[in-house]
Amino acid sequence: MAYTVLARKYRSKSFDDVVGQDPVSQTLKNAIKTGRVAHAFLFVGTRGVGKTTMARILAKALNCLKSDSPTTEPCCKCESCIAINAGEDIDVIEIDGASNNGVEQVRELRQNAIYRPARGRYKIYIIDEVHMLTVAAFNALLKILEEPPDHVKFIFATTEPNKVIPTIQSRCQRFDFCNIGPAQIAEHLRFVLKEEKIKFEDDLIIHLSKLANGSMRDALSLLDRLISTCDGTLTTNLLEECLGCPNSEKIYSLIEKIGSSDAAATLQLTDNLITAGMSEVQIVDSMIDNMRDLMVFKSTAGKTDILILTEKQKEHISQLTEKFDIAALVYNVTTLEKMRWTIKNSDSARALLEACMLRFALSEHFLNVDQLVKQINSMPTLKKKLTNPSKPTTSKLDDLSMEDAIVKVPDNNIDLRYLVTNWDQLLNDMSEELGKATFGLLKPAKPVSFENGNLTIGFKPAEKISMNICQSNGRAETILKAFKTLSEHFKHLDFAIEEDAAPETLKASSEQKEQPIQKNNARIKNELINDPAVKAVLIEFEASVTDIRSKEES
């Protein structure tokens, strides 16, 4: 006896048996019960979701001989039901739209449709892949589809409804078949294997249900291939050996090395996957699937039914999510999808794949902006704590000599030269007390006098508005209070407009400082460019460094 593949052997025979299409089944059952069965139906959905199966079940329900009228529960035992199941009933004509797409075939259908059915209640035409019909064939079908004989029903099935002309669609009741969920596919596969008395690993069923991509027929076809290659228990190793699917452990190891920024190990594991027989596109597809699992798991803190994973996979993913943030995972998935088409059509597929993997591994996990700011803020900075001076000093900016301007003042002695030299750092230390707005107003200003605890802050003529704002709405009190948090010696605060030209003493001091800064300029720039946080920003925004300035310069 000839072998019957699982997809045919376990084909649904009643409305209740159809997996994953409950809304369609319920609607058709209600139409039969109330006697409101349309003369034409359009079943839309991807491959293997049950369109043709549902069409046959509807035909059996309308023509079951054991019932006096259309029924929602066909017997599946009468001559009509058995013949329809086998696709051999004389009153249920199944037509392949791909090979019978001409106007002559449609004209022949119209001529035969006028004759009454031989034994059933209705003559039913099931046209699969109806979108393959030509425009002329569609037009030839319009008249009989609009006003068919009472004994004729049409059921059209298509995977591309956009190719069915609107005049045909408007004459049909349309039913959209959704993709079948992995959980429902897995449950049906377990049922089939138990009926076949075949031992299996539960992890294998989960992998197969995901590989099916919503198609029950694809899932059963894959299961058929695995059964034919194994005499004993079905294991997950068969996926790699027979179907060319990557071992999830190897993919997890590759992702772990990427998360650890281990470039050498990343390249080695990529080579291992290629050597094992996987194509570059298969590796990219597997990375997309697993990165997507990581993204969903981290976004939901592991509390979701979206993911179909084994307990072991959940444990692995839980550990891997610690090495990535959500922004990085989103970036990885989108980048891999873009690279997929490039790799598929490239003569240098391996080089592109390795470059992509290295890009991930050396990206410092693609820090998002918020995390980058937190990392920068947490970096150790050289902050100088001010203490009450042992002896108050009196000085004016014009009284400072060039030599005094470059002398480092001890921590226990605050004077004008100290304030001038460390002004930016002092503002940074007081940024929380000042607030962002006030901090921005004081940034371009400079101290011009410090005498007996009275500090005068100078503004350039162009910054007069900023000075006026600092003097209004209690900002002056806030600024003085902030200075007092550094040292209680600050007693009074004044504001003044200073000349555009800087005092000669400061010019001289800046000239003396410029030379040692220039000596270290190349080293500092090199360190900044190679800083992990800076590299992450450059990679994230696909940017490049055009200039580097100090805070004082900017």
Topology:
Layout: H1 6-9, H2 22-34, E1 40-44, H3 51-63, H4 79-86, E2 92-96, H5 103-113, E3 123-128, H6 135-146, E4 152-158, H7 166-169, E5 173-176, H8 182-196, H9 202-211, H10 216-228, H11 237-242, H12 248-259, H13 263-275, H14 280-299, H15 311-320, H16 326-344, H17 349-361, H18 369-378, E6 394-396, H19 402-405, H20 416-421, H21 423-429, H22 431-434, H23 436-442, E7 446-451, E8 454-459, H24 464-471, H25 475-486, E9 492-497, H26 504-529, H27 532-540
Parallel strand pairs: 1-4, 1-5, 2-3, 3-4, 8-9
Antiparallel strand pairs: 6-7, 7-8
Helix pairs in contact: 3-4, 5-6, 8-9, 12-13, 12-14, 12-15, 13-17, 14-16, 16-17
Structure description:
By secondary structure, the protein is of the alpha/beta class. The protein folds into 4 domains: 6-176, Rossmann fold (3-Layer(aba) Sandwich); 182-242, Helicase, Ruva Protein, domain 3 (Orthogonal Bundle), CATH 1.10.8.60; 248-366, Zinc Finger, Delta Prime, domain 3, CATH 1.20.272; 381-554, GMP Synthetase, Chain A, domain 3, CATH 3.30.300. It contains 27 helices and 9 strands. The strands form 2 sheets. A 5-stranded parallel sheet has the order 2-3-4-1-5, covered by helices on one side. The protein starts with 5 loop residues before the first helix and ends in a 14-residue tail after the last helix.
